[in-house]
Design brief:
The complex is a heterodimer of chains A (428) and B (309). Chain A has 2 domains: 259 residues, Orthogonal Bundle (ABC transporter involved in vitamin B12 uptake, BtuC), CATH 1.10.3470; 135 residues, no CATH class. In chain A, 80% of the residues lie in helices and 0% in strands. Chain A has 16 helices and no strands. The longest helix of chain A is centred in the last third of the chain and has 51 residues. The radius of gyration of chain A is 30 Å and the shape is globular. Chain B has 309 residues and is α/β, with parallel strands linked by helices. Chain B folds into 2 domains: 169 residues, Nitrogenase molybdenum iron protein domain (Rossmann fold), CATH 3.40.50.1980; 118 residues, Rossmann fold (3-Layer(aba) Sandwich), CATH 3.40.50.1980. Helices cover 45% and strands 11% of the residues of chain B. Chain B contains 10 helices and 8 strands. In chain B, β1, α2 and β2 form a beta-alpha-beta unit. In chain B, 50% of the residues are buried. The chains are: A mainly alpha (428), B alpha/beta (309). Chains A and B meet through α1, α5, α10, α11 and α14 of A and α1, α7, α8 and α9 of B.
Chain lengths: 428, 309
């Protein structure tokens, strides 16, 4: 646990610094309706680094940074004008074009210097897990300075009053500088989440900028902490896990909105209704799928069985269950044996007696055979289950169908009303 | 500096292809295979490799010029083991417009899969199973990094050369034997240098070193990115740091194209030194051909082992 904390607190601090500035820019970006501008700016900065690399500068050098800054400023100038140009062509289209052309140009250039391909990739796929406290030293003063600049010029830079292009240029230039440094640390996906999701939640729940910011910061912090924890306990790549928790945070905020802003009782009724309809739809669709194609994947049954394996005994006969268990045990054993042989060979590389080529070949062919045998057992498992499902489909399918119809709101009352409408004395 | 070194490696290949009309044209996917093919073919062949050094052949995107190169080739040599999967499709593409290239398709006389008869390591079957191995179902593809495997690779190349150019088969065979003699002499030297790393635990960014480790008895105890392209999880990284402390790992092996950030992070955490090795010919300036690849790598490792506190 202490290991985890030692490893996770520097990325957490970096995430806080990034959310601090990006939540603000996110609100501005949402107001301007230029959602993907950060991708365009990051890609332009990467193109600048690529050009520097082609001219013989290291990507980490001052010259490398200079080139990427110069490219970003040119792009900022372009972006400042896109608002004026945008008439028949929406501004987002122009931003998208800047993004794809910059990305393609970098690929074309790097094709002439193949060692650069990996470096180019690194500019855009930072790994927040391996950032350190040292990474904060350059960005915190920079972000603070830009924050203060924006605060003092807030009336000029706000999106609402149709500011003129020099002020738009200042906005995009400062944003470009921020994005360039943050993307190198956290990668394109995570920076986009930092930018848009806390801002979107803030905009959803508040009107004043200060409150929007406060909400964005708090929720961004919580989502980052949750993402880091999820990534540690479930052993997942950190950046991707954080993007998912940010997405979950937005979904949660959206789901809670009607409860917090409006008639809570009505919202609860709607939610209950929605849940019943969804559950009914899932049950009815599963019933139809089971009856029509019992051998196809049955997502509902598979999910239930993976959570509670004994459910299988409901439709497998004792003999089938035995075959299934046996095949499962064998498949596991073959997998273990293959792993054991691989480990044996790997251990022999450095220590102990060296295995000769003949033995290595035998090990490889054993592993291949085990893998084939395992596939065979997996086939048996699938086949036993498919046959049982095929046999039971006219029992299980209608049962699911009726259950679905019972759960669907109103179907039952509608059915009983229609029955009552049948006139008395109707010949039986 | 790097680009100059690159030019030095690539330029002779290009000019050779340009002037030598009487020569047998051969296209390989990687620079390693190009170097070994030259060793067998000698002056009679002009070899071009498609994937530039220090570029991941699994992610290579063929260019129109590659089709043109194939049109003139009499022989193609690939790594196989799913490492250069795009190559077969490229050959089919060339065969559409140039009937001569049909002879280069898989199963035809002009096609060499250099992995034939190699004792493959890290085979995981075709299952997408667990484990920390290579993603390749058919085994770890970095087999050229065991110099003993050069015997098999050059054997495969010789067989194909004798097939397409039987008139000079004797010459090719003599070339190969001379090369293997040279390799055998150097082998003793390399093994002596590798002796300095006896009992030294290492980690690498990616499991490219299985064959190299087996031949020189190196102890790789972990990999930073076990699944290519998927960044390491915190649990994996903290487990790796723990292993590095327990096993006293002082050296991290990096190839020039592998990302520096994760490696520097671990190096900083554990005070380990980073040693840059060439995974293929031309990846570092010193690895000019197949033999100097091992010279350079074992020198670098021996120097790092000596310098380690």
């Amino acid at each position: 646990m202490t290991d985890a904390l030692a490893l996770l607190w520097p990325p957490f601090l970096v995430a806080l610094a990034l959310i601090g500035i990006h939540a603000y820019f996110g609100i501005q970006v949402l107001a301007r309706g230029v959602i993907f501008v950060d991708l365009a700016l990051a890609q332009i900065a990467a193109l600048g680094s690529t050009v520097a690399f082609m001219l013989g500068h290291s990507m980490q050098s001052g010259a490398g940074y200079g080139y990427s800054l110069a490219f970003t400023l040119v792009a900022a100038l372009l972006l400042a004008f896109t608002r004026t140009w945008a008439g028949r062509i929406p501004q987002e289209a122009l931003i998208g074009i800047i993004y794809v052309v910059a990305a393609a140009a970098a690929i074309v250039l790097i094709d002439r210097a193949p060692q650069g391909a990996e470096h180019l990739k690194q500019i855009l796929t930072g790994n927040i897990l391996t950032t350190g406290v040292g990474d904060l030293a350059p960005i915190v003063p920079l972000y603070l300075a830009i924050g203060i600049l924006h605060f003092t010029l807030r009336h000029r830079l706000s999106a609402s009053d149709g500011s003129s292009w020099p002020w738009e240029f200042v906005f995009y230039a400062t944003f470009g500088i921020v994005v360039t440094s943050s993307v190198a640390l956290a990668g394109v996906l995570l920076v986009f989440s930092f930018l848009i999701i806390p801002a979107a939640i803030g905009v959803l729940y508040a009107d004043a900028l200060a409150r929007q910011l406060a909400i964005g910061w708090v929720l961004g912090t919580l989502a980052s902490a949750a993402g880091l924890a999820v990534s540690y306990f479930w052993d997942l790549p950190t950046g991707a896990a954080m993007v998912c928790t940010f997405g979950a945070a937005l979904a949660l905020a959206g789901a809670l909105y009607p409860f917090l802003h409006g008639d809570a009782a009505r919202a609860a009724r709607h939610v209950a209704l929605g849940l019943r309809w969804s559950l009914a739809a899932v049950l009815v669709a599963s019933a139809i799928l089971l009856m029509a194609a019992p051998r196809a994947d049955q997502p509902l049954l598979d999910a239930i069985e993976s959570v509670a394996a004994p459910v299988r005994t409901l439709y497998l006969t004792a003999g089938e269950a035995e075959i299934y268990r046996d095949a499962h045990a064998h498949a596991e054993r073959y997998a273990r044996e293959a792993e054991r042989l691989n480990a044996l060979e790997a251990r022999s590389r450095a220590g102990g007696e060296q295995l000769d080529d003949l033995l290595v070949r035998r090990i490889s062919s054993f592993i291949k055979s085990y893998s084939e045998m395992r596939k065979g057992e997996e086939f048996v498992k699938r086949e036993v289950r498919a046959r049982a499902r095929e046999r039971m489909r006219w029992v299980l399918g209608p049962a699911l169908l009726v259950l679905g119809l019972l759960i669907a709101p109103g179907v039952l009352t509608w059915a009983s009303a229609s029955i009552r409408k049948i006139p008395a004395g109707f010949p039986n | 500096m790097r680009s100059i070194a690159l030019a030095l490696v690539v330029a002779p290949l290009l000019t050779a292809a340009g002037v030598a009309d009487s020569k047998l044209r051969i296209v390989t996917t990687t620079t390693d295979l190009a170097s070994l093919t030259e060793a067998v073919g000698g002056d009679r062949v002009a070899v071009t490799s498609l994937v530039p050094p220090s570029f991941d052949p699994e992610e290579y995107q063929p260019k129109p010029g590659d089709v043109a190169r194939l049109k003139e080739a009499r022989l193609v040599v690939k790594v196989g083991l799913d490492y250069d999967l795009w190559f077969d499709r490229l050959i089919s593409q060339a065969a559409l417009t140039h009937p001569g290239a049909r002879e280069l398709r898989r199963g035809q006389p002009g096609h060499v899969d250099a992995s034939a008869a190699i004792a493959t390591l890290d085979v995981r079957g075709a299952s997408v199973g667990p484990g920390d191995g290579h993603a390749h179902g058919s085994g770890n593809p970095h087999y050229w990094l065991d110099p003993k495997n050069a015997e098999i690779i050059t054997g495969n190349i010789l067989e194909a050369l004798a097939r397409v150019d039987p008139a000079h088969a004797g010459e090719y065979e003599a070339n190969r034997l001379a090369f293997l003699k040279l390799l055998d002499d150097r082998m003793r030297d390399w093994e002596a240098k590798a002796g300095a790393l006896n009992g030294v635990a290492l980690i690498a960014h990616h499991n490219s070193w299985a064959y190299f480790a087996r031949r020189f008895r190196l102890d790789f105890v972990g990999f930073i990115e076990p699944r290519p392209g998927v960044p390491p999880s915190p649990a994996h990284l903290s487990g790796l740091i723990k292993t590095m402390r327990e096993r006293d790992v002082r050296l991290i092996v990096r190839q020039p194209h592998e990302p520096e950030k994760n490696i520097d992070f671990l190096a900083q955490k554990t005070k380990a030194a980073v040693v840059v090795l060439a995974g293929s010919v031309g990846a570092t300036p010193a690895a000019k051909d197949y033999l100097s690849l091992f010279d350079a790598n074992l020198d670098a490792l021996a120097a790092a082992a000596k310098a380690r506190p």
